[in-house]
Amino acid sequence: MSTAQTTRLIGAHMPTTGGLHKAITSGHEIGCTAVQLFTASPRQWRSRPLTQEEIEAFARAREETGISAVISHDSYLINLAAPNADILQRSREAFLEELQRAEALHIPWVVTHMGAYLNSSEEEGLAVLGESVRLLLEQTAGMKVGIALETTAGQGTNLGYRFEHLACIIDSAGGSERLGVCFDTCHVFVAGYDIRTADALSATLDAFDRIIGLDRLKVIHVNDAKKPLGSRVDRHEHIGDGELGNETFRALLHEPRLLHVPVILETPEAETMHAVNLQRLKALMNGS
Question: What is the maximal distance between C-alpha atoms in the chain?
């Protein structure tokens, strides 16, 4: 039995229909050892506070399934780089709630897309984003939960498609230990970083380590890509069916520097295909 097989935390973003704890139990049913979820509707600004019953049910599901590696993802509405003052304020308030919910649920990392600068400039957007992250860390001083900045495809005016962007934000926030990175395979590839072979992946990780530091890498999103290298078009594909192909994921799952990092699927058609894609990953991990 390989080291990867025995130690890899691997799973998917799971739905919460019927309660937050359902993400854990349904993930366990399809073979997840790690789970990502939304702790509230991703399409609403505000959400009601968690009840003690919900918090306890969530903790019980983790204990019963043995799934301790749990990540949350923030709302799609949040833009921490927004040039509009009202949207920026609402985004900061909503993200503060994301962090508070994750802390209550003992979730260590909240993944966030880094925001879009829209009608400002990339430089201005990075400055606003850096200030947003710094303020949020200050507002949650003493909490354990951290912010995992996600690499992006660079579609439109989205920030985070260069490793330098993430390094800039981490530096703006004083290098806090509560700042990590989520590495998305589809996003990184279409942003222009080749990871299709073991050598290409190694070179990209070397660049990541030099610019950001591999110690900051807390989560990996595994998605194949519908569009080619450098296209900056964010379209996820099932594992092995896209531009990345099986070799990418075989190399990633056996890369020694990544063995401790949870791997999360965000591929399409979650209800029917997460189980299929998970099995594809496990087959690649175990030598097929």
Answer: 54
